[in-house]
Amino acid sequence: MRRSYRVIPAYASTPQAPTGLSELMRSSVSAFKTMNLKQLGWNVRLATAFAPLAKKGWQPGRIIRDNKITFGVILGDDSRHEVILSGKVYHEAETDADLPAVGDWVALEIGGCVSRNIIRARLPRGTCFARKQPGKSSACQLIAANVDLVAVVTDPGVDFNPRRMERYLAVIERCQLRPLLVINKIDAYSKQAVDDAVNALSQLLPRASIITSSAHSAMGVRTLEAAFQSGETIALVGSSGVGKSSLLNRLLQRDWQWTAEVNAVTGKGVHTTTARELAPLPSGALLIDNPGIRELQLWTDAASLRASFADLDALAMGCRFRDCRHGSDLGCAIRAAVEAGKIDPARYQNYLKLEEEIKELQKQSRKRKLKLH
Ligand SMILES: Nc1nc2c(ncn2[C@@H]2O[C@H](COP(=O)(O)OP(=O)(O)O)[C@@H](O)[C@H]2O)c(=O)[nH]1
Ligand SMILES: [Mg+2]
Ligand SMILES: [Zn+2]
């Protein structure tokens, strides 16, 4: 499987703008734009990559919305444009994950062929937040590009599942991003239930910070805001319905324009996130809201498994046999620790399942390679 066809490429040529005028426009706005680009996450790495593209008269912009057929981009002067992909960028992408995504920086031709705005190139990514694609294939799906921190949102009740949080964390760490756990909707639960949720997560995942919040009462929202630095890109993930979009609106202090669709009958805003989008916050951070990730499947490898189970891995050094599978094997140090009550049995089960999952992934990727040759 290569990629699904979903972006209509523009087979447009680049008409040359009159040099004098475009030069003038570029030089007069460049200082102003550089200043504002920084607030969108622009840095030296990107500026270096963009330098040769600037000579073609293209402008740097950041993708803030994926409309499936078109993209929404924001420029350094805060203007927002709807853009399409050039045929070249489309054809040069080997997989879906190579196509521009929310968070990506692109070189744009604004008002190009037949007044269309075209993505002429995608700049190299600093980071990628990616997961395994739903379904059987082991292909990777990009959630967002150039992300610094991933905030996993849950609630203390219905959605609460520390094992799932652990899996999110494994993906986040494999992508070398910083994790943050958010327990939202605390207004709707007892203090005891919230404390229990915090304790369960901090015991299982001691290396991740935890913030409790309520998008309804605004409790903890300031703490959340303080955890995001200016110019930093944060991806909000978690099950549908946990309050990601509500938190975003709280942080924005208004409704994000693209998510407020007005119902023709009631005249009220209907808030459902159908697309992935990036919103600049008044605090200077950039927040990416994701539609619910229905099926979290790991796109992970042995290294991330090792990282999230470092303590179990250390224990495995004490197993009698080198190839111990930590099941019914004689002299298994991990099983002994579980039996002695030192390791949570559920976490041990998860460890065994993750190993199987990785083996399955590797098998599938081998099969795919065989088919290609
Ligand atoms: N009680 C309570 N309800 C919330 C809170 N945050 C969101 N909700 C509700 O939960 C539902 C889903 O919220 P939404 O922001 O769309 O969740 P998303 O799918 O994660 O983006 C809506 O009915 C919200 O009003 C909260 O902090 N407390
Ligand atoms: Mg939402
Ligand atoms: Zn063992």
Tell me the name of the CATH class of the largest domain. Alpha Beta
Give the C-alpha Rg: 23 Å
Oligomeric assembly: single chain
The count of β-strands is 16
Please, what is the CATH homologous superfamily of the largest domain?
Answer: P-loop containing nucleotide triphosphate hydrolases
- Sketch the major β-sheet: 6 strands, mixed
Strand content: 15-25%
Question: Which features does this protein show?
Answer:
373 residues, alpha/beta, OB fold (Dihydrolipoamide Acetyltransferase, E2P), Rossmann fold, 3 domains, five-stranded mixed β-barrel, 11 helices, 21% strand, binds guanosine-5'-diphosphate, binds magnesium ion, binds zinc ion
Q: Topology of this structure?
A:
Blueprint: E1 9-10, H1 19-39, H2 44-54, E2 59-66, E3 71-75, E4 80-86, H3 87-92, E5 105-109, E6 118-122, E7 128-132, E8 140-145, E9 149-154, H4 162-174, E10 178-183, H5 191-204, E11 209-212, H6 221-227, E12 233-237, H7 244-252, E13 260-262, E14 269-271, E15 277-280, E16 286-289, H8 302-308, H9 310-316, H10 333-339, H11 345-372
Helix pairs in contact: 4-8
Describe, in short, the structure shown:
The chain is α/β, with parallel strands linked by helices. It has helices at 19-39, 44-54, 87-92, 162-174, 191-204, 221-227, 244-252, 302-308, 310-316, 333-339, 345-372, and strands at 9-10, 59-66, 71-75, 80-86, 105-109, 118-122, 128-132, 140-145, 149-154, 178-183, 209-212, 233-237, 260-262, 269-271, 277-280, 286-289. The protein starts with 8 loop residues before the first strand and ends with a helix.
